[in-house]
Design a protein that fits this description.
This protein has 126 residues and is mostly beta strands. 0% of the residues lie in helices and 48% in strands. The protein has no helices and 11 strands. The strands form 2 sheets. Strands 2, 4, 5, 6, 9, 10 and 11 form a 7-stranded mixed β-sheet that branches. A 4-stranded antiparallel β-sheet has the order 1-3-8-7, with no helix packed on it.
């Protein structure tokens, strides 16, 4: 059983930055793809960022490309999401997720992910 615990959310002014963390139980990066999703009030959950299976490449939603960066610390079993130039449209609950390595699973589809964290609220004031 994989457990994911997010932290780092909060209230920030437009133009500001936040860094989210996702601590995973055990060394899972070799067997799982890690990703970030978010869900704004009244909207469906959407893809934000993810690693490739090997971890050597990253993928981003167009809406966050150039502003957000996904990274990880293998020694700490932790994935990060650095968010810069935040705006009101970034307000959402952010979720960390882990997808077991399986052929054909799309990095951007939430049904490709097996484990989810509890979420952390990010609120951007304009």
């Amino acid at each position: 059983q994989v457990q994911l615990v997010e932290s780092g959310g909060g209230l920030v002014q437009a133009g500001g930055s936040l860094r989210l963390s996702c601590a995973a139980s055990g060394r899972i990066f070799s067997d799982y793809r890690m990703g970030w999703f978010r869900q704004a009030p009244g909207k469906e959950r959407e893809f934000v960022a993810a690693f490739s299976w090997s971890g050597s490449s990253t993928y981003y939603a167009d809406s966050v490309k150039g502003r957000f960066t996904i990274s990880r610390d293998n020694a700490k079993n932790t994935v990060y999401l650095q968010m810069n130039s935040l705006n009101a449209e970034d307000t959402a609950v952010y979720y960390c997720a882990a997808s077991r390595r399986t052929f054909g699973r799309a990095y951007y589809a939430d049904n490709s992910y097996d484990y989810w964290g509890q979420g952390t609220q990010v609120t951007v004031s304009s």
